[in-house]
Specification:
about 300 residues; mainly alpha; Arc Repressor Mutant, subunit A; four-stranded antiparallel β-sheet; elongated; DNA-binding
DNA sequence: TCATTTTTTCCTGATT
DNA sequence: AAATCAGGAAAAAATG
């Protein structure tokens, strides 16, 4: 009955490290922050911490963190609308936010407003600190990811999950009044038909949704997973261990591995969320019960 | 708290 | 040889 994970203590394999994109280097609840020499942190604190000085990349980081924190599916907002640096971000009005991100904009606006005034203290500090740690690599990254080739399918990604948003932060929207208590706050970008959509998704995403969202957000996906056949829903893990680490991060489980993640994936076969693709390693295919991955699926 | 569903962990064995 | 794939079992987590 007793399980000892002596061999799981650290990251499973060396290959995991090499796969780990700087972007996704695990953000643990910064335990060592507090125990760290203040001088060390201070340097980073003053500059990296303040949203005004964020790079575009850090803006993305913040976006991702904020959405995660509120359990909002990343596909529900067009990331390319936030291809701005910290300075620009901070100069955006409430309206700008709602225009850029629909209803989620309110939340984002509130978040960034808080950060501006708090000077970046709090949890974000930790997050941003982590990212500044790997800054050099990150910058390489952001360069290589800047030119997104195809924004179009960011949009096609959203529908279902969008609905959890209201559920998870209605208060934020309501309590944001200061700037515009007005009409423009209701220009949510819902695409006409509010048809038979089931808002079932409880909280965070399930594994398959997590995978789908990575695929659907190229700008958040620095070569982690790639479509093999977009129209058939066939995809392949390029950096299996990195994806596992990312999944682990989401689940707050630092010992996640591809081995374990793949077991969960295999359970999807029976439920027809995934279809088996044999012969090809690291290749999976969405099944009839997987929703929201098609380009024409909205 | 309970029941059910999903995910995690571990493992043995097969494949590539 | 090292990774992956396959699933069974069972525990743990997440959800309603």
């Amino acid at each position: 009955m007793v399980r000892h994970n002596t061999c799981l203590m650290s990251v499973p394999s060396a290959s995991a490290d090499s796969q780990l994109p700087a972007t996704w280097s695990p953000h643990y609840p910064c335990t060592d922050m507090s125990t760290m020499a203040p001088g060390y942190v201070g340097r980073l604190w003053t500059q990296e911490m303040q949203p005004q000085f964020w790079s575009k990349f850090q803006v993305w980081e913040w976006l991702q963190q904020t959405l995660d924190m509120h359990q909002i599916d990343a596909t529900s907002i067009p990331f390319h609308n936030f291809d701005v640096d910290g300075r620009q971000l901070c100069s955006m009005s409430f309206q700008d936010f709602t225009r850029a991100a629909g209803s989620v904009g309110a939340l984002l606006y509130q978040s960034i407003t808080d950060l501006k005034w708090s000077g970046g203290a709090g949890q974000y500090a930790a997050e941003m600190f982590t990212s500044s740690e790997v800054k050099t690599e990150m910058e390489e990254f952001s360069c290589s990811m800047l030119p997104f080739k195809d924004d179009s399918y960011i949009y096609s990604a959203s529908p279902p999950d969008l609905y959890d948003v209201k559920q998870s932060f209605p208060t934020a929207v309501a309590g944001i009044s200061p700037i515009s208590g007005g009409p423009e706050s209701k220009r949510l970008h819902n695409r006409g038909s509010v048809g038979p959509i089931k808002r079932h998704n409880p909280r965070g995403t399930h594994l398959w949704e997590f995978i789908r969202d990575i695929l659907l957000n190229p700008e958040r996906n620095p070569g982690l997973i790639k479509w093999e056949d977009r129209s058939e829903g066939v995809f392949r893990f390029l950096k299996s261990e990195a994806v596992a680490q990312l999944w682990g991060k989401k689940k707050n489980n630092s010992s996640m591995t591809y081995e374990k993640l793949s077991r969960a994936m295999r359970y999807y076969y029976k439920r027809e969320i995934l279809e088996r693709v044999d012969g090809r390693r690291l290749v999976y295919k969405f099944g009839r019960n997987a929703r929201g991955w098609r380009e024409s699926d909205k």
